[in-house]
Amino acid sequence: MIPDDLIEQVREAADLVGIIGEHVELKRTGSDYRGPCPFHGGTHRNFAVVPRKGMFYCFVCHEAGDVFTFFMKKLGMDYPTAVREVARRVGITIPERGPTGPDPHEPLFQAVATAADWFARQLREAPDADVARQYLASRHVTMETAALQGLGFAPRGPAFLDAMKGLGLRDEVLLQAGLLVKREDGTPAPRFRGRLLFPIHDLRARAVGFGGRILGEGEPKYLNSPDTPIFHKGKLLYNLHVAKHAMRKAERAILVEGYFDVLRLTLAGCEEVVAPLGTGLTGEQAELVKRHAPQVILLYDSDDAGLRATFRAGDELLRHSLRVGVATLPEGEDPDTLVRKGGAAALDAVLKQAIDLLERKIQILERKGFFGTLAGRRRALDRLIPTIRAASDPMTRELYVSRTAEVAGIRKETLQEEISELGQIAPAVQTSVSAQLSQVGMGPNRERTALLLMLHSTEWKTRVLEKLDAENFTFEPYRVVFEALAEGRQDRLDEIPARVLESLQEEGLRDQTPDALLEWVDNSFAADRNTRQIKLLDRNITLAADPEEKARLTLQKQALTNERNAKRATWKILETARRKGAPGT
Length: 585
Fold this sequence. Notes:
5 domains; five-stranded antiparallel sheet; single chain; Dna Topoisomerase Vi A Subunit, Chain: A, domain 2; alpha+beta; DNA Primase, Chain A; five-stranded mixed sheet; 585 residues; DNA primase DNAg catalytic core, N-terminal domain
């Protein structure tokens, strides 16, 4: 098999217009080129070549693809031969590695490609796709745009299954490709029904899965293909196969939350835009971004859920040494509505005002008055420290420490010791799936108890959210579950958090009193924070040479001690009771 990075080198070096121009008389139309279609033999200029996206498309027969696809469809080559032919033309040598046999996953790629073509045709032609066409029109997406993006429609009923059988695709292949599911009685059924479909591509621009938005009533709102041998939602980014070229040129990526956000921004001329596939940003996705750009601007919704997702994604990007900025949308807007109302100018204005991730956190905390009291500053630090610790670039971390110490009114040395001690208390447990799962029973009991309370009822979830934030959770699987429950997105959890959630749902509160458990959780988190800070102040008091500095630190220590001791009696009683029978013990 030809390595992916070599295929990308060949694709980027190819002159798509020049190669297709050998077979079609092309004329420039704006930034694209048009000519008669070489596939269906038309005479009108319905065939478009789009260099910035590296693709061609016919608006009549709907043939589409990249430079390799053109050779395959026009000259009957298979994929490796097409890659070698383009490589020969651009002067890149592909080493001969001897016979390796066919790709064992080729039937899956073919199944998804066939399904994508069929879904796209349904969107264009099927009478029952009128609901999808009307929905696109309501969001100001033309059918020409939908065709260029490869959007499709999955009807309800057996039509998909019948069509695939008619094309000779076996149920076993369709099941393995994630296109079918098995009913309780073991019979196959289409996975996607009554949904507008967005095809998802790998870096070779091959369709490997779909994201489907429900039309009308139904849950979930968005449904992705399941993980398959060719599709791993935590390892792909929507639109990256197109955006990667623009990302390298612009030296940045714009990260948004959803498929429509990507679609709207690309129509506004912002081509370096990508999105996760319905889940929080993963380390693999952050690494993908890093391969193509050194900087990321996060353009998520500005509501509470959007901010949580913003900071979660930002911390993940910082762990991979990327520079991270946050663009703030006007109240009530998302990227889609912003561009629909204000066009490219509104988008440019928002992107130009992007500020650093940590600075955005500080801005929000200042507006909420966190830095006005000693207790508020402590809570603010709890929210800022995870971002400092996430910064793997030494210079960025140093700048973050200095800025946080300045705004919180504490010594840099105190903050650095706190960060170091937290690193020892909560080491990352992310080496493998089995390693993380083996730690679940060892995760902090107060964090697990907080999640059990959230699962107990909507009322108790609300009460927990009033007291805790994601930054309170040191154990990664618990933090991810907390965020999913807070945002109502638990159906989109990846493997490890999903299994953790399942375990918690089975566990329940075991007849424990929710009020007492919540009080214990709240006091336990508060006491732990205060105890750590008191220990650090003790060290700094001992080292302080200036009497005024020693007196100031002593006053801080006394205030924290009083705050902790005010709850100590209740905390100790509840701690003893919890050890005798609370969940997870």
